[in-house]
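Database export, one record per block. Field names are fixed; values are copied verbatim from the stored entry.
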Amino acid sequence: MDRRAFLTNISLFSGGLALACTSLGRRADVFAQTGDLSAFKAGGFGELFPTKAKNTGETLLSLPRGFEYNVLGRVKEEMSDGRPTPAAHDGMWTFQVKNELRLVRNHEVAGRSLPQENAGIGRKNHYDEMAGGGTTTLVIDPKTNTLMRDFVSLSGTLINCAGGPTPWGSWITCEETTLGRTVRTRASDGRKTGGFPKSHGYCFDVPASANSEVNPVPLKAMGRFVHEAVAVDKKTGIVYETEDYSTAGFYRFIPKRNGRLAEGGVLQMLAVKDKPEYDTRTGQKAGTSLPATWVTIKDPDPESADVDPIAVYKQGLALGGATFSRLEGCDIDERGRVYFTATSGGDKKGGQIWMFEPTGRDAGFLRLLFESPDKQILHMPDNVCLMPASELLFICEDSDYAGQESVNHIRILTPEGKMADFARNSSEQFSRSEFAGSTFSPDGKTLFVNLQLAGVTLAIWGDWSRFKT
């Protein structure tokens, strides 16, 4: 099915991916009674086979027939600026900068959550010289999907997990921690964290056009919490934000001026209308659609976040805000609908896919598009991206935790509410590595994604028109 036919097929229902809601509940009921998962599966691009990288010959992925990939930007390799490629490749996005294809890539470096001398991944302009996270920028040859040059573009931040692109050509990178000057001591084992020269837990705006380390400016009005990802509405300038914590909020930031985030604005947390403190983590019926509103956070940058990572969430909860389970990846479509994942949400704790659709300035609907019935279908969704010119949602899995025995995949959610497998981690050395940072090139020809533990970025290409629902 080509993209035009695909869009024609789904246009019969104005909700796009909300098509999933009409039959997903019935499928869940059938599975509960019979254990049959076939109704949840889509054909996709076909069966997966171990595939060697075109440029290195190593087998890191299993892919459908006809798809190829290259390995780029490996950890510890020297970059064009003379710095070693940092570890923990995570969220990223592609940008067209004049005649160049660029990737801005996060590095979720924690440094054991303690200050370290000379930790900055760059040479200058460190936000906090004792923090080892940040971003690198890769310039890609779009004809060969090979690396032309790479360099540090943000230095001195901490645990840069995900983020999101902006309409003004930049990447908002987010810190997944609120560690700061205060030293925390864990009661269970006495482990200490914190003690950094500067506070963390912020977002930073990194222009894709930058050719060296940018001057780091923490966007404090956007909140200090355990950030994951953001999605920017290009019409309104509103920034939606996810929080990766067991009790998490879904937020939006309304800037004073569109595109000028450093000038401040208002931070709000989603609430379910007439159902204060609504808990979405369990007991949700697949296909649920809830009227939503917003509550305003009075203090988006509380000092207490130094020792309490959910200090902002607690403010929103006290005003009636809704609770989610570990919100991670998010993306936004042309109609301003935001798709986001709850990694451990659902009765099976295998993950949920939510959508927020605004219907006015302060109103909208929260819809549960998918809840995993079994880890064979979806297990702990993380970063997501929509394939250009379609409504196929590509989902990175992150089930690499102790005690989990899953093999991570890239899955695809269809508008009919079915899942297809697109890729499987087939690395022998890094078999438990999560996928992260899925993003298509602007022309839709190449999917870029990271294998985090392996410390590599992968460029995948093939015939994207032959998807079967």
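Remark 1: Confidence is low (pLDDT under 50) at residues 1-20.
Remark 2: The longest strand covers residues 146-157.
End of record.
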